[in-house]
Amino acid sequence: MKFPENFLWGGATAANQLEGGYDLDGRGLSVDDALPGGKQRMAIIAGPNFDWTIDEQQYVYPNHQGIDFYHHYKKDIALFAEMGFKAYRFSISWSRIFPQGDEQEPNEAGLQFYDLVITECVKHHIQPVITLSHYEMPLYLAKHYGGWKNKQLIGFFKHYAETVIKRYSDRVHYWLTFNEINSAAHFPVLSQGLIQQNGANEPRNIFQAWHNQFVASAYAVKAAHEANPDAQVGNMIIYATSYAYDADPINQLANLKHNQAFNFYCADVQVRGHYPSYAPALFKENGFTESDLDRTSDELALLAKYHVDFISFSYYMSSAIDATGRVTENISGNLMGGVKNPFLSASEWGWQIDPTGLRIALNELNDRYQVPLFIVENGLGARDTVQADGQIHDDYRINYLRAHIKAIQDALADGVNIIGYTPWGCIDLVSASTGEMSKRYGFIYVDLDDQGRGTLKRTRKDSFYWYQKVITTNGETL
């Protein structure tokens, strides 16, 4: 099955993981700036003592430097162009535009930086695919407003979205609203600014924050369509194909419930424009009722009118569900885990590798929603070794990506409407889950270690040349 002629091959990054320049040119702090690096990152920020304090005596903060894309963007985008990228998915740092998040006037220096990045993409015939909020809300909004459970954030985000969409709509045709919005089901710190101290342990807060984000997303859809009728706006979710561990009806039902609560809930609202029929039962299972949520008739009407145009999603792994307690071996994953699937291997970080699961995901999403699909994250986090001659041989990454691209081909043959593929971390960057540089995804190696030491030199890996050929042949040569 051939890929469509206009298929958007490319790569994906996030501002908080590569930009650096965290305190330059008027930028304010983001929630990600307060997250320490290291394997205990998630445990620390999920703990009861975490209060957004930046303690540089005790921790390292690799996101502050990233890979210094802020000063290397021209060279990096030129490398993307050399690979043949048709699209580059990146995010705008909200706190670079509105340092606290609640200002009326934007930071012009921040707007000018993204002008330069977008112009550089267009110069190389690369479509910018911009995420408005990728785990980097202004820290001030989390500390002083309590994060997304506060409805005031709807207005702040609306103003931010309208500002950047109006500024860049002549050159940007693809927008994503909230990155991996459903991740808050397991870890609301990154996407909602909720920690234990401001209500992360109370499910009602998470669902209220989701509602507020749904409304804010609808305002972004409205702004984009008014600025450019040809603009396309997508939501963005984690999709982890989920299997019942066995044929036990208890596990089959548990898997159905899991899919509703995690894989489908946010997409159902953002794509269909209304809350799903199972929502009241889901609320009850989480200890509250519909009347406990602050939702107005005007907001619900807005959701119905300004639903998204396409679904974008990350796919790294699948999960298995056991509700019987008979299976005791668990695995980790992209902010969520499950029981170990005996039929799958896993990465060094425990993420189960399942390319067939991507084909299943594409079919499930296509059948449920009947809108275009865009795979905006996929990849293998692995340690790379620089050889004595400077080369990086990463066949393990090539094998992973080849198998997943083949799964996309198979889904196209199944009749699925897929518009693009942008593998995650197309250039090495700071890992979101661990804050490490050693967990690398990129086609381009960046000389930095986990403590931020190194030359920042960029080096093409073997996968760089492999992906270049994939794009050149439009997927015919894998």
TrEMBL record:
Keyword Hydrolase part of the UniProt annotation: yes
Residues annotated as catalytic: E377 (nucleophile)
Entry GO CC: cytosol
Biological processes annotated in GO: carbohydrate catabolic process
Presence of keyword Hydrolase: yes
InterPro entries cross-referenced by the UniProt entry: GH, GH_1_N_CS, Glyco_hydro_1, Glyco_hydro_1_AS
Transmembrane spans: none
Gene Ontology molecular function: any one: beta-glucosidase activity
UniProt entry keywords in alphabetical sequence: Glycosidase, Hydrolase
Domain of life: Bacteria
PANTHER family attached to this UniProt entry: 6-PHOSPHO-BETA-GLUCOSIDASE ASCB-RELATED (PTHR10353:SF122), GLYCOSYL HYDROLASE (PTHR10353)
Similarity annotation: Belongs to the glycosyl hydrolase 1 family.
Name of the protein: Beta-glucosidase
